[in-house]
Give the backbone structure.
Amino acid sequence: MQTILDSKSLGLLIRTERKAQKLTQEQLAGLTGVGVRFVRELEAGKESCQIGRALQVAASLGLTVSVSRRQEGG
């Protein structure tokens, strides 16, 4: 499991998985029903990308997203 702490690391994960599946940004956009511009901005780590659409792209790549509490230092 990979820890995602910001939009840049989420974008990198999306890009890495897309390339591993040998998909272009255009193909991924078509599969998920989002625009190519959105995919580009998501992969670039744009902070204002809509979370719902980002989750839709992740799901189309077979990625799951989970949230957990950070462990308190100690």
Q: What stands out?
A: The chain has four helices and no strands. The mean pLDDT is 92. Residues 7-60 form a domain with the 434 Repressor (Amino-terminal Domain) fold (CATH 1.10.260.40).
